[in-house]
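Please review this one:
***
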Amino acid sequence: MISYLIYIVDDEEMIRDGIAAVLGQTYQVEAFPAAEPALDAMKEHLPDLVLLDIGLPGMDGMEALRHIRVHHPAVLVIMITAYEDIQTVISAMKLGAYDYVVKPLHMDGLEVTIGNALQTLRLRKEVQNLQEQYLTENLPCFVSESNAIHEVMQLVEQVAVSADTPILIVGETGTGKDLIASAIHYRSPNFRGALMAVNCAAIPRDLIESELFGYEKGAFSGANPTGKRGLIEEAAGGTLFLDEVGDLSAQAQAKLLRFLERGEFYRVGGNKKCRVQTRIVSATNKNLEYMIEQGAFRKDLFFRLGVVTLRVPSLNERPGDILPLAKHFLVRFGRKFGKVFVGISADTERALMAHRWTGHVRELKNFIERGVLVGKGPELKPQDIGLEAYSQQGPLQAHEPAQGFPPIPPAGVDLSSIQESLEKHYIQQALEMAGGNESRAARLLKLNHHTFRYRKKKLGIL
């Protein structure tokens, strides 16, 4: 059952106590003789509704209303006035007051006004409670201690509030783009609708159009005799996640562009216009800008898909997440296979940190799953995950410098500064060799365009 907290702010004790006695039978109530203590209390316990007297000592009701609207815009405010001063009431309504009541108060009328106000909050609270339940039950765990991922998730929170704005997620294979898509869906107004996912690269190019948009009966040889709804219709009121969107055929790209621009489409073999409201979230590990240069992807579709673009950093860009993720997967697969591992050995941690993760989080997950399955415990060892070669090398000693690199001096070195200088040098050199063309420079460094631009911006290279 949904409960509501109401603040009563009135300097007349008899009125304040009388309202509190009646409303306290139905709602949680707190009463205050002035605005200042009520505003202080809001810092700890935010009310759903405030009954606010206009003629208060100290800070008056109008000033308190302004403060509430700025700092707590979701709180509803009903003004109380000793006489029907039209100009004051109009000013209060313009500032955002929900309604007003006039002294002497009639409790029956006041309760009706409060009931109407809280009715506007009831649906909001029901949706919020249901959404929290969906997030708990459906949202996969995104384990991270890095600022890079936290920044991505903050942006997810901001962009998810829209029900239909297209979002493009870019990042290398295995970085968790599907988890980001899930996070967007379950934080959006569409969370009660379906989340449909399709890997565009896994469906033959001549079938992808019918999979997305459906087809009418007899549209082609072997078609279902009754026709078929496409994924865009199946995801109506929800979210369609197009993974590997760069693999769409030219015809499918054209139809998708029409849908994004007009919200309409035709089934394959049909002439009836269909309209649905489906949010499109797409993802790719390809350089779509380079594909546009090669004529393999539509430029107008690229801009429509990427109204908001989210870049998921690779695991190699956030090494601080490697061990937390490994420990998370260790617990997860320990439960799955009924095995108990007390932790990850120091040699294994070193091996995990030294490995170059070409498959990123997905590769790390597979390594840990294999290790738990074949390992005997009680710790996860390098040979369990197939990385014993790293542990056998042993740590480099200061008196044994790696070939081609100077030894570490007694005072130590600033490794972060060295890495930054080296990266900046190669990015600038690649840009010079490519004549300023970012796509070509990225290819020289074996980076996708989005990663190149991110690092270039991060290093302040113009």
About this structure: The first strand starts at residue 5 and ends at 9. The two ends are 57 Å apart (CA to CA). Residues 185 and 191 are 6 Å apart (CA to CA). Residues 107-138 form the longest helix (32 residues).
